[in-house]
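We emphasize that the prediction below concerns an isolated chain of 370 residues; any contacts that depend on oligomerization or on bound cofactors are therefore not represented. The input was used exactly as deposited, without trimming of termini.
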Amino acid sequence: MDFDFSNDQEEIRQAVARLLDDHTSFAKSHDLLDQGTGFDRDLWASLAEGGWLGVSIPENYGGSGMGPVELAVLAEEMGRTLAGVPFGAAQYLAGPALVEFGSEAQKSALLPALATGQKIVTVALAENSGFAPDAVASKVVDGCISGVKSPVSDGAVADVAIVAALDENDAAGLYIVDLKGDGVQVDPLDATDPTRPQSRLVLTGAPADKLSGADAAAINRLIDGAAVLVAFEQLGVAAHALDISTKYALDRTAFGRPIGSFQALKHRMADMFAKIELARSNAFFGAWALAENDERLAEAAACARLTALEACQFACEESIQIHGGIGYTWVADPHLFLRRGWHLKAMLGPATIWSERLVGALKTPTEKAV
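Result of the prediction step, given as a token string:
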């Protein structure tokens, strides 16, 4: 087993990295925070023009027809550059759900628009302090859905949401909802990272179009796949936080020496590196399990999620500490990483949830039946 990106995948990384580096910067991130405009529409248009929004969408629907590993490459670069675009929910969850469970009409209506950036598609899973099917309370009656979903990533800018809800037999499923249609109220939330806005979605008899075959088990597999991809985005955030901290520690002097020469800071940065590399190893295993549809995906996803959560949060918090007093200020850059780290944590829930999912994945069939 070769847990590394191939030469072709590395070329994809270099290409998307060049585009992102040309359109992103810390100054741009600060501007987006100050302006409160939601997301970087110029970058979004450039990603669409370059075909990067359709990487995992089949070619006959306007995409490139690549797989989850290539999408993981993009995810890490999105994290590294703190790209302020509605990428994650659409690419990690909505796109795979449509590809796997959508009817021909549903795919034809949404996948080309998703690939070209003409429509922003999000997912609405979370409610009742959970996001898995067993936490769902929203209900579909006579083809209309009612319930409250929160938080919903990119809900304020999305055109369409794929919503988890229960049918009349209390079976969980996924439904397409037009966020511009009747029975939909979108309330913006005070997001930790305003460049990736969150919303509260109130549905009152909103027309819903079911994705056939997306039952509770399928939803859990989608969540596991998304956890792997989010882990790569978290790796990008954490590694860049370590990078800016290292550079600062080499440039900043105290008592006539670079502060990076002091043992206490060396230990901090070594711990950051160790946690990132452990998370990277688990993320690669998760990407392999996702690409191969391996039976250990649930286990691999939980391990990737847990170690990526730890690495990202630790690296972002330590980066602020290493930058000292200036690290706490609005004009400094470390809080940009901390904000994105908290957003990615909220996207799929905290470590306690994933610890429970890992325990469940490790149980034997006999134990699960008890």
